[in-house]
Amino acid sequence: MDGLCAGDEKEFSYEKNDEKGPARWGELTEEWKTCSSGSMQSPIDLPINQRVQLASSTEGLNRNYSASDAILKNTGHDIELEWEAGAGTIEINGTEYTLKQLHWHSPSEHTINGRRFALEMHMVHESKDGKIAVIAFLYTIGRPDFFLSHLTDHIRKVAGSEGKETMVGTVDPEDFKIQNIMYYYRYMGSLTTPPCHESVVWTVLKKVRTVSIQQVSLLQEAVDGEPGWNARPTQQTNGRPIHLYVSEDNGHH
């Protein structure tokens, strides 16, 4: 996935006071300067008192996903599930985006009314001209997540080994059960890892899901063999519009 992750994953860190930590990402290379200078960075805090708007068909999540073969890989800063041939599409504002990969951040990167959650999953989509759309799921500690339960053995196989990959077989994005009627936040932001490119369409689902402590620990420890977090701090909103939509269509067209 060119452009979605940095070439050398250890070129940056999530440690707050580290010389390669989030506050310094924009100084590490010329290509990453947007991480510091950008005015539309992600993640952000999402306000709870947002007025709910009914999503039109263009603002909706018009999904046409399909099951496809996937591999699980340890990128050195997250665990990523990649569909080698893509896994169908979503359409937002007339642009079609192909589902390429998903990965996890712990704790969550986005916050709601200042509250940070245990885990966040990003479904990353890319259009033919390289534009990015991400659907984000938030998780709090509770019952195990069904999807992660199926991946446990695969995650163990790539644990602690940067660059390691394992075949997962067929994975159907519809298994995530993006509900028929759902609330979601929509705003324009950026990648949350260097190079922090902007003009990413963010969709953050308001309904918080559950994940077990063991599942969060497994993901954290799998990345580099020790418990650690891989979440970028929230960024300034800078007056960007944040919309909270309720979708009434069934998502399929």
TrEMBL record:
- What protein name applies here? Carbonic anhydrase
- Point to the regions of Basic and acidic residues compositional bias: 7-21
Q: If you read the UniProt record, what top EC class would you report for this enzyme, in one word?
A: lyase
What region holds the Alpha-carbonic anhydrase domain? 10-246
Reaction catalysed?
hydrogencarbonate + H(+) = CO2 + H2O
InterPro entries referenced in this protein's UniProt entry, alphabetically: Alpha_CA_prokaryot-like, CA_dom, CA_dom_sf, Carbonic_anhydrase_a-class, Carbonic_anhydrase_a-class_CS
Where does this protein come from, organism-wise?
Answer: Ricinus communis (Castor bean)
Assigned keywords, A-Z: Lyase, Metal-binding, Zinc
Write down any Gene Ontology CC term: chloroplast stroma
**MF GO annotations:** carbonate dehydratase activity; hydro-lyase activity; zinc ion binding
Q: Where in the cell is it found?
A: Plastid, Chloroplast stroma
Region (Disordered) residue spans: 1-21
Q: Might you give the EC number(s) for this enzyme?
A: 4.2.1.1
Q: Which Gene3D superfamilies match?
A: Alpha carbonic anhydrase
Cofactor(s) needed for function: Zn(2+)
Kindly give the Pfam families that the UniProt entry links to this protein.
Answer: Carb_anhydrase
Into which family does the record put it? Belongs to the alpha-carbonic anhydrase family.
Q: What does this protein do?
A: Reversible hydration of carbon dioxide.
